[in-house]
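User: Could you go from structure to sequence for me? I need the amino acid at each position, not a summary. Structure tokens:
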């Protein structure tokens, strides 16, 4: 999904005034309104990152993640801002800045990923990882729906 395809309602939810990568995945479910956006985010990623997330986020992307459980973090990502139907998680590395936005609406939950490349390494590392990301996210949303019920 390119910047031009991004719904304006999502563009307003990122803290990045400009970004180099964005995607939005939606999942239709009757359970969308049964949980807050934060509960959905925790159902997707947990309170602390699992081994695979640590490998990708910290190991390959170099993202700074917090350790331990906290009401101010989801899977090591800082809760940057909340709204009634959305939550924005944020982190960065020396070579990229990242926002994850989880948004709920009538019958749907959505996950948007925004990245800004800060250095050439970010621009080189993300494209091959983005292919894996795009394959994994639909399953992340489906699995979260089973946890929210």
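Assistant: Here is the amino acid at each position, in order:
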């Amino acid at each position: 999904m390119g910047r031009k395809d991004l719904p304006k309602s999502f563009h307003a939810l990122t803290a990045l005034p400009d970004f180099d990568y964005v995607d939005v995945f939606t999942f239709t479910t009757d359970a969308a309104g049964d949980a807050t956006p934060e509960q959905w985010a925790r159902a997707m990623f947990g309170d602390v990152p699992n081994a695979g997330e640590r490998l990708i986020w910290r190991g390959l992307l170099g993202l700074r993640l917090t350790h331990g459980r906290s009401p101010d973090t989801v899977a090591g990502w800082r809760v940057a801002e909340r709204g009634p139907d959305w939550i924005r998680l944020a982190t960065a590395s020396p070579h990229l800045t990242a926002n994850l936005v989880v948004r709920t609406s009538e019958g749907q939950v959505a996950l948007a990923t925004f990245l800004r490349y800060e250095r050439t390494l970010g621009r080189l590392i993300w494209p091959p990882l983005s292919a894996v990301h795009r394959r994994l996210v639909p399953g992340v949303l489906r699995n979260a729906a089973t946890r929210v019920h």
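One structural detail worth keeping in mind: The chain has a mean pLDDT of 91.
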